[in-house]
Each structure stands twice: as structure tokens, then as C-alpha cells.
Amino acid sequence: METRYSRLSSRTMAFVLAGGRGSRLKELTDHRAKPAVYFGGKTRIIDFALSNALNSGIRKMAVATQYKAHSLIRHCQRGWNFFRAERNEYLDILPASQRVAENQWYLGTADAVTQNIDIVDSYGVDYVLILAGDHVYKMDYEIMLRQHVANKADVTVGCLTVPRADAGAFGVMQVDENDRITDFVEKPADPPAMPGDPDHCLASMGIYVFDWKFLRELLVRDAEDSASSHDFGKDLIPQVVRQGRAIAHRFAESCVKDHPDAPVYWRDVGTVDAFWKANIDLTDFTPELNLWDRNWPIWTYSESVPPAKFIHDEEDRRGSAVSSMVSGGCIISGTEVRNSLLFTMVNTNSYAVLDHAVVLPYATVGRHARLRNVVIDRGVVIPRGLVVGEDPEEDAKWFRVSEGGITLITQNMLDRRAGS
């Protein structure tokens, strides 16, 4: 009979690296770290890593923060405060607090763990799962943990299968027929192909499983190396590949899907274009990312708000939404909403049109505004009659227009426009 102790997740701590700014998201990360950026109508990006850990059976977690961490810390405190110490459950928030030296913040991803070795020690775990807090995916980490133990690996690296043409942006693994990693190359010009598949590569997801005893010794040695950048991808993983036993775990084996034929879904929403597309994709008839799956829910902080409301029913003044997601607390007053995603407490006014719009919480859209292919930041007040998405040159005078033609609108941009 299987006991709860036979699940490796019960002996594992998830350490989430959530300190990155995500500068490619431009003004969306002016006031928040990338893991705290909103996604999918009511969640934040970090909720995916934390939910995966919780759903996998992990009840000990830590979140390391650094860049503009207030909204991320507040979100974790409000949405992830249900862990109970008396049940041996913990979620610690670990800001870069100069615990090692007064002038030393987190120097790299590995250093973020090194500076908290004593805290990890206090958990009394056998395994540590290192996670990036800024990707959107669903994954059962227990499967990866079992592969790690079965292969007696020093490190197991989560890997995506990507086309060789796209692999230059990743850390790429070269593996043998048993998925042992024989080489690790960071952002290579000529990426090594997978065995038997010359058109694809195995790219690192930034997910690593270590035996804690092994990782602890590795971190201590790395901290004493003045030539190291103290980063997992640049320093520690290549070292283990050269000197130890590193195994590749293929994401397709642990990706959580609602049916066998569903695609393997993983997204780095690190650019304005990618962020907009991943959100708009959720409005598809059958989106690749299933947020409705009650067997693998994405947990988050849920505000107490009333249901969405649609008002007015006149020929040119009808509150309606087609092929869209509209969150709680929204009031769609005489506005035409198409192929759009509206977050909590968005208010729109009469005669406005939203088409392929991603509108973050508490934004207001004024009368007669026409907005197409836009991302609107939290709390923005769109003025009456504003037209965006029809004249790219005019849009670029005032707003951030991406390479893919998506316009990012923040309140500071609108204020500069109004004062010009």
C-alpha cells in the first residue's frame, strides 16, 4: 500500500526564483517584477509555478524576490497564505535582504539559494526543485522527481523540444540515447540536435531537481569561486554536466493535459507580443491552455467582486462580448467587446469598441474609444474618443508599439499625451 511518504514530493522543497525584472515587457514591469505580471484574467504569472508545485504534492515552498517585489510579495501573502505550519506546510518569501554582506544582493540565480542555505536546511528535505517564476505551463513535478531518483542523477534538467532554428535563445542540451546530458551550451549559434531528430533541440526550461546534500556542497564551493557568476545556467549546470551525472527530463512526459491529444503547452510571455498573444489565445474556441481543468487548478488570490454586468441594448449602444473572457466586477456599458480578455473590475463606457484587447485590472475605457490590438495596463483611464490600432505612426508618437504591431498603453503615456 502506497503511503504519502512514498511520494517524493513530500520530501521536496520548491525554490522559486522570482527576482527578475523582465525588461522585454517594457513598461509592464516598471512597477512590478515579471512573475507578478497579470495573466489570464485573474492570475499572475508566478501562480503557475506555485500551483504546479501544490498540485504535485509539494507543501514546502520558498519564493526569492528582488526587483520591485512589493506587488509580488503582497500577492503571495494574500493568495498563498493557506499553508499551515502545524501540517508541516510552508511558503517563505525570501527578499534579497543582504543576509551575507551589507553590500551584497542576490548576485545570480544560484546565489539566491546560497544566501538562504540555512533556511533550506531548516525544511529538512531530501530534494530541492529549482523553478523559474516567470513561465506559463502546467507540469506534474512528481514525474520529474521520480526520474531523478531512478537515474541516480546529480541534477535533472527540465527540457523543452524546440525547433533548431529557435534554439539560439535557450540553453541547449546535447544528450546521449539514455538522456544523459553530455554538453550544455548557453544560447549557441549552432545548437546541437536531439538524437535521431536533426531538426529539433532540447532546451532548458530553467527547472532543476537536485539532492539537497549535493546541491548544498555545490553552492558552497561556487560561492568561494570569484570567477563564477553564481548562476545555475551559466555555471552550476555546465559544471555538473562535465563532472557529474546530469539527466534531461522531457517536458512532454510531465506536461499536464486534459486529453492525450492536447498539445504540450509552455510559454515564456516575456515580450509584449508574446504576452498579448498568450492572453488572446485563451479566447479561442478550444484554447491550448485549459484554465477550466478542475483536476489541475491554477490557484491565485481572488478578490471578492460581483459578477460581470452587461448593460444597454440599443442598435449602436449594446453591452456585448463575443469570443472574449470577461472577469468578475467588470461593467460592460454599451461597449462592443470582441476577441478580448478583460481582467477584474474593468469598466467600459457607451459606444466604445474593444477588439483583440488585453485590459488589466481596474482600467476604465471612455465613451467612443476604439482600441484594437492593445495591452492596457492596470488602472489606466482611457479618455473619451481615443483611437488606437488604426494608425501605427500616430500610435507610436504616444505609446509603445511592439515589433508585432501591439500597442502598450500606460497611464504615464496618456498623461504625457494629454500634456503635450
UniProtKB/TrEMBL annotation:
**Which InterPro entries does the entry mention?**
ADP-Glc_PPase, ADP_Glu_pyroP_CS, GlgC_bac, GlmU/GlgC-like_hexapep, NTP_transferase_dom, Nucleotide-diphossugar_trans, Trimer_LpxA-like_sf
Q: Which domain of life is it from?
A: Bacteria
Q: What does this protein do?
A: Involved in the biosynthesis of ADP-glucose, a building block required for the elongation reactions to produce glycogen. Catalyzes the reaction between ATP and alpha-D-glucose 1-phosphate (G1P) to produce pyrophosphate and ADP-Glc.
Glucose-1-phosphate adenylyltransferase/Bifunctional protein GlmU-like C-terminal hexapeptide domain sequence ranges: 306-409
State the top-level EC class. Answer: transferase
Instruction: Report which reactions are catalysed by this protein.
Output: alpha-D-glucose 1-phosphate + ATP + H(+) = ADP-alpha-D-glucose + diphosphate
Enumerate the residues marked as the site Could play a key role in the communication between the regulatory and the substrate sites.
66, 105
Which CDD domains does UniProt cross-reference here?
ADP_Glucose_PP, LbH_G1P_AT_C
Q: Does the keyword Signal apply?
A: no
Question: What family does the Swiss-Prot or TrEMBL record give for this protein?
Answer: Belongs to the bacterial/plant glucose-1-phosphate adenylyltransferase family.
The positions annotated for binding alpha-D-glucose 1-phosphate are 106, 171, 186-187, 204
Subunit structure, interactors included:
Homotetramer.
GO MF annotation: an example: glucose-1-phosphate adenylyltransferase activity
- One GO term of the biological process aspect: glycogen biosynthetic process
**Per UniProt, what is one Pfam family of this protein?**
Hexapep_GlmU
Q: Which UniProt keywords apply?
A: ATP-binding, Carbohydrate metabolism, Glycogen biosynthesis, Glycogen metabolism, Nucleotide-binding, Nucleotidyltransferase, Transferase
Q: Has keyword Lyase?
A: no
Question: What protein am I looking at?
Answer: Glucose-1-phosphate adenylyltransferase
Which residue ranges does the record assign to the Nucleotidyl transferase domain?
A: 14-283
Q: Which HAMAP family match?
A: GlgC
- Its Enzyme Commission number(s) read 2.7.7.27
> Pathway it acts in?
Glycan biosynthesis; glycogen biosynthesis
